[in-house]
Amino acid sequence: MAKPRDDRAWFLVLPVVALVAFSALIPVMTVVNYSVQDSFGNNQFFWNGTAWFKELLDPATDLGGRFFDALWRTLLFSGLCLLIEIPLGIAVALTLPRRGWGVAASLVVLALPLLIPWNVVGTIWQVFARRDIGLLGAAVNGLGIDYSYAQNPLDAWITVVAMDVWHWTSLVVLLCYAGLRAIPDAYYQAAKVDGAGAWAVFRAIQLPKLQRVLTIAILLRFMDSFMIYTEPFVVTGGGPGNATTFLSIDLVKIALGQFDLGKAAAMSIVYNLIILTVCWVFYATTTRGQSEAAR
């Protein structure tokens, strides 16, 4: 006999769902409305159809070229952050103590960067990396290396990537540490009996058990890094030139700097669709691989 199903608990969640849906629906409708219109000032809007989207997706146009340049920069930034933060987070999590007073101390220290507001992180690194008064900038230049994130595009990239790694690797570490703590001791005892080394234990036990945690970590870090705005804007302002002008920064420049609401709205919709598509593809591929491995 099938167990009766009680859905009354959903009534406790419905008010929150309705509030979130309402608060999200109005901005989305406004953006969609702007994306199909043009404005000539004085709050006068005219129907423009899909012209902004066609121009945005055509690399031959000024808007399209600008969009794709910013898109490749953003994808490169997200890729670099993931390539550094995920392996580094796993390595640090493996070295953390499993018992004793060091556990609480390590977790508190790791959580500190996550508690700092984004604009404060940008301000810290803006001063820290300055070549005249910053500890990092002055030290690097003291070694005879000409370092200036305000003038050299490569130095600007190194600075913003290092800043993101410093700020967000702790999140990966905490997630991986929680996943490692969830592995039963019986697995380690069996590996010890078989004479498995540290690398064999990591490859056969720890890494497979961390797959779900790593999926969450990669998704979170991709979305955060792909949407990053405050930190690089505070440090470099998108410069030097357009070297660190990511999609989020370019979007704000178009919307608020040039006040081209139609172009900005079309770009924001495409921007959002790219994030949703990449996350869905990654999640579907990862979960399918995990289900096949579990069979």
From TrEMBL:
Family label: Belongs to the binding-protein-dependent transport system permease family.
Record has Transmembrane as a keyword: yes
Native species: Paracraurococcus lichenis
Stretch forming the signal peptide: none
Annotated membrane topology: Multi-pass membrane protein
Name of this protein: Sugar ABC transporter permease
InterPro entries, per database record: MetI-like, MetI-like_sf, Sugar_ABC_transporter
Residue ranges crossing the lipid bilayer per the database entry: 12-36, 75-94, 100-121, 156-180, 264-285
Localisation per UniProt entry: Cell membrane
The entry's keywords: Membrane, Transmembrane, Transmembrane helix, Transport
Source species taxonomy: Bacteria, Pseudomonadati, Pseudomonadota, Alphaproteobacteria, Acetobacterales
Domain (ABC transmembrane type-1) ranges: 71-282
